[in-house]
C-alpha cells in the first residue's frame, strides 16, 4: 500500500476523531496513530521486510473498520435517545482527595511511590547478592534478563510491584488537577525505571508512561468541561516536563539496550538506517521495535502453525492462574518468534486475538473495544467517577499496546486495577466522604 495512502487514512481518522469527540486526544486518534504509524514504518522497508499478504491487509483494515463501527454504534444510540453530553460546573469539594489543593491526593501518590522505591531497591539488593556488585549486575545484563524471564528471581512480597501503578494513576490525576508538572508527576515512573533496570526490560516503562499520559489527558478533558472555570495549564511547564520525561525514558531504554548487548548489524539493512547503527538513541534495533510486529503477524498468517487454547493469549493471566491448580496446562510465557528476516516474537494484538478466536475475533474484539471505550468515555464525562476513569484508562492502554501485544496478557494490567479499586474504596471508608463519585448532579 502506498505510503501516502497510509498517511492520508491515518490523518483522516485522527481528524474524524477530533470531530466526533471534540478533543484531539481520543481513542480513535490513538488507534489511528499507533497502527497507522506501525504500518508506515514497516512499509518504509529500511529493513528487508517481506511484502504483506492481501489477507493481512484485509484483516488489518477489517479490524479498524470494526473498531470504528463500535464507536459509531454508541453515537447512533446517543442520537436515538437524544442523550446529549452537557458541560458541567466542576465542584470537587465532595471528595477529600481534592481538599486543600489536593493535599491527600499528593500524599497518596507519595505513599505508592515509596512502595515502588522499596521494591526497586530490594530488587537491586537481591541482584547485588547474586553478582557481588552493581557493576557485575550490569556486565551480566543478558544473564539477569534470562533469569527474570524464567522467573528465577523472586519478589520480596508477591503483587507488591503492582501497587506502584496506583501511584501512576493518581499522579496523572494530581498533575492535571494542579495544572503543572512537578517531580511528583514523574516519581512513580522513575521508581518503575529503577525496578526495570533490575530486569533489563522496557515493557513496564512503556506501560507506566502510557498510563500516566492517558490519565492526565482524560482528567484534563474532564476539568476543561467546566463552562464557568478555566483550569489553566502552563504550556512552558508542560513542554519542559515532556522533554525531561522523554529524556529519562530514552536514556534508560538505551542503557538497557547497550547493557544487554543487542546487536545492531542486521542483514540487508538499508544504507539510510545503517548509518545510525552507532547512534546511542536511534539505532536499527529501535526501528525494528517500531515496525516489525505487523511483519510477524504477516508471517504468522502465512504459516498458521500455532495451537492455542480458546482465549489463551488474551486471558493469559487466568490460564496461568488455573495452571497452578492443574486445571489447564501452564501457558508459554512468551509468544512464538518468527524470522522476518530478524527474530521477533510480538505480532500486534491482531495476531493474538486471531490465535485465540479465529477470524471472528478480528472483527468482534476491535468492535467490542470501540463500543466499550466510547460508552465509558461518555459515561465518565456525564457522571464523573474515578472507577469509570480507571477502566477507561486501562482500555486505552490496550489500544496503546495494540502495535505490540494484547496487553491483557500481562499480570499488572489486572492487579493494578484491582489495587486501585481497593485503594479508592478504602480511602472513601476511612475519610467518610465520597472520593470516587466526582459529580452527582448536572447543572
Structural class: mainly alpha
> What's the Cα radius of gyration?
22 Å
What would you call the shape? globular
Element string (H = helix, E = strand): HHHHHHHHHHHHHHEEHHHH
The DSSP helix count reads: 18
Mean pLDDT: 85
Question: How far apart, in Å, are the first and last alpha carbons?
Answer: 50 Å
Strand count, sense and closure of the main sheet? 2 strands, antiparallel
Strand arrangement, major sheet: 1-2
Strand coverage percent: under 5%
**Approximate helicity band:** 55-70%
Task: Give the topology.
Layout: H1 3-21, H2 27-44, H3 54-81, H4 99-131, H5 134-139, H6 141-149, H7 164-178, H8 183-196, H9 203-224, H10 235-259, H11 271-274, H12 284-291, H13 293-303, H14 316-323, E1 338-339, E2 343-344, H15 348-357, H16 359-382, H17 386-400, H18 411-431
Antiparallel strand pairs: 1-2
Helix pairs in contact: 1-2, 3-16, 4-7, 4-8, 7-8, 7-9, 7-18, 8-9, 9-17, 15-16, 16-17, 17-18
Fold and architecture overview:
- This protein is mainly α.
- The chain has a domain at 1-84 and 288-404.
- Helices cover 65% and strands 1% of the residues.
- The protein has helices spanning 3-21, 27-44, 54-81, 99-131, 134-139, 141-149, 164-178, 183-196, 203-224, 235-259, 271-274, 284-291, 293-303, 316-323, 348-357, 359-382, 386-400, 411-431, and strands at residues 338-339, 343-344.
- Strands 1-2 form a two-stranded antiparallel ribbon.
